[in-house]
Amino acid sequence: MTVEAFTPASPATVAGIGPYAVPHPYTAGSLSVVVVQAGSRTTLGAADWAATPLDSATAGNVYLTPAAAALWAGATLYVERATQAEQGWQGVQGEREKGLEAQLDRLAMLAQDAQQGLGTALRLGVAIPMIVPGLNRTLIWDGTGIVAGPTVAQIEAAAAAAAAAAGSASAAAGSAGTAAAAAAAAAASAALLGAWRGPWAGPGTVYAAGDRVSNAGSSYYATVAHTSAALFPTDLSAARWGILAEKGVAGVGAGDVVSTNNGSDFANKPATLANLGGQPVDPTLTALAGLDAGAGVVVQTGADTFAKRSLAGTANQIAIANGDGAAGNPTLSLVLPDQPTAEAGADAERPMSALRVTQLIEARRGASPRIVTSLTVNADVTGLPVGVRLIRLSFDAITLSTNDSFLIQLGTTVGILATGYDSGSGGRFGESFRSDGMLVLNGLAGRALTGHMLLTREDAVSNRWIQSHNVSPNLASNDAMRSGGGSVTLPGAVTQVRLLRIGAGFFTGGAFRLTWEK
Predict the structure, then answer these.
(1) What's the CA dihedral at 130, 135, 136, 139 to 10 degrees?
(2) 132 pLDDT more than 70
(3) CA dist., res. 322 & res. 311, Å (int)
(4) What is the mean pLDDT of the chain?
(5) Confidence grade of residue 349 (pLDDT, cut at 50, 70, 90)
(6) Under a CB-based contact definition with an 8 Å cutoff, are residues 62 and 20 in contact?
(7) Is 426 exposed, middle or buried (0-12, 13-18, 19+ CB in 10 A)?
(8) Rounded distance between C-alpha atoms, residue 434 and residue 216, angstroms
(9) What single string gives the DSSP state of each residue in 4-56?
(10) 220, containing H or E segment
């Protein structure tokens, strides 16, 4: 083995389970898969992906699980290598050259990893002391090195203080403007109205423009500076005075309401209230007036008794907006599940719409296209979702070029399983058993088999599958039907199925289709 120049894996956009190419050699456990989405980097766990093959002297591929592919769809995917440094030399006689070659290969890969890491690391042009990080503390450059900076809390506090200062400055500027405007208005009013001079003082009194006086119950202001005449009406008719407030018409009758008793001495208060146009005292209105100022829907709980209520929904079933009616009419709506919840089928509380029921049924089953097997040695169906519990295979006049039979093999995201099966198939003229797949017995070139195979997941924890089948030869073969069954335990959830011929021949005709249910 030799190690060529290191070619790092190019970033890829997550679109399905893969494959995502690994264009360099690697050892088992040396790869890691990282996704970056919205600037955040996440290293996927070992259960989210698998490398095929587990190790390689040349290249390989990485496959995501369907769940991880759906979760990180559209994110940027990086495949990184960090080869473990270990001593591979054992010094066994006769194997020195091969052991030395393997160890040198590992050292070459370690050097490539270090070179790749240095090429992508943050570097400075000068040597700096060791950086000692602090909890929730930033790092800053002080001119000679990188030192601990302010904490996140300090930065947030400074930002809040700056925002508060800006708000205070704006409020102060607004208050100053308002005060200046009020002062200007007061100054203008004072300049316009002048001084209060009391009652008009008679002839020969000197008044300045704006002076204010009272006369016969009304108030006036001097429109021009002047010396008063003998009578006020003379100056008024000469436009020396302008009216400020004019005396109203005097009231008539007796029993005026005065502010000193507020009507407490009325002999017949109901009659007085009715004469004033007021609503007579009513216990119902009194009860309503006794309600507090809080929001709510008013309900009558008895005679002249009222209370406030608020509509409340049932969790996960009915949602109510504005239940107290403070912001408008209350609205009620059913709490329907979203698509993922509908597909999960585990919510026992929320009602399901007809559309969600249809979506749930459709999301939990699927089918492959019709696959023609002519002139092939095998055919694969991939991309089955995790959680499949039932698989049906329909065979339509499948024929082989030799006196052989064919197998059905199951697979996971890691690959097709070709061992560990316990299966048998037979008919009137014989039977056979296989451990490398689910056997469907044929045994004659050109014999067309038509029928079904049913595979059910017996245990979701152990991924144990049980199989049964019934197929019939074509009329021309004048042969008996074949039937059988079998079982296998997979290392993980089934995600692919393979139709495989036995022997050196190939399929000469027919087709098959796969359907599944979750």
Answers:
(1) -10
(2) no
(3) 8
(4) 84
(5) low
(6) yes
(7) middle
(8) 128
(9) ----PPPPEE--SS--EEE-S-B-TT-EEEEEEETTEEEEPPGGGEEEESSSB
(10) strand 218-222
The Cα–Cα gap between 375 and 378 comes to 9
The structure tokens 């209370």 sit at 307
Q: State the pLDDT confidence band at 125, using cuts at 50, 70 and 90.
A: very low
- Alpha-carbon span 220 to 115, nearest angstrom: 99
- Rounded distance, CA 377 to CA 145, Å? 67
Tokens found for residue 329: 């009419």
The CA distance from 95 to 415, in Å, is 33
Tokens representing residue 461 in the block: 């924890």
- Of 340-349, 395-404, 498-507, give the lowest mean pLDDT range: 340-349
Backbone angles phi, psi at 152, to 5 degrees: -60, -40
Whether residue 53 is preceded by a cis peptide bond, meaning omega within 30 degrees of 0, is yes
Instruction: Please measure the distance between the N-terminal and C-terminal CA atoms of the chain and give it in whole angstroms.
Output: 46
The amino acid present at 97, given as its one-letter code, is E
- Can you tell me the distance from the alpha carbon of 410 to that of 488, in angstroms, rounded to the nearest whole number? 9
Give per-residue burial for 160-190: e unless 16+ CB within 10 Å, then b.
eeeeeeeeeeeeeeeeeeeeeeeeeeeeeee
Quick count: other Cβ atoms within 10 Å of Cβ 308?
14
Cα separation of 332 and 134, whole Å? Answer: 51
The answer to whether the beta carbons of residues 352 and 342 sit under 8 Å apart is: yes
Q: Which residues is 61 bridged to in the sheet?
A: 21, 52
According to DSSP, the β-strands at 76-81 and 31-37 are: antiparallel
Residue 17 pLDDT exceeds 90: yes
Question: Does residue 214 surpass a pLDDT of 70?
Answer: yes
Encode pLDDT of 381-427 as tens digits: 999 999 999 999 999 999 999 999 999 999 999 999 999 999 999 98
Q: Provide the percentage of residues in the chain whose pLDDT is more than 70.
A: 82
Q: List Cβ neighbours of 98 (8 Å cut-off, separation of 6 or more).
A: none
* Segment 466-483 mean pLDDT: 86
Q: What pTM value is reported for the model?
A: 0.37
Pairwise CA distance, residues 442 & 464, whole Å: 26
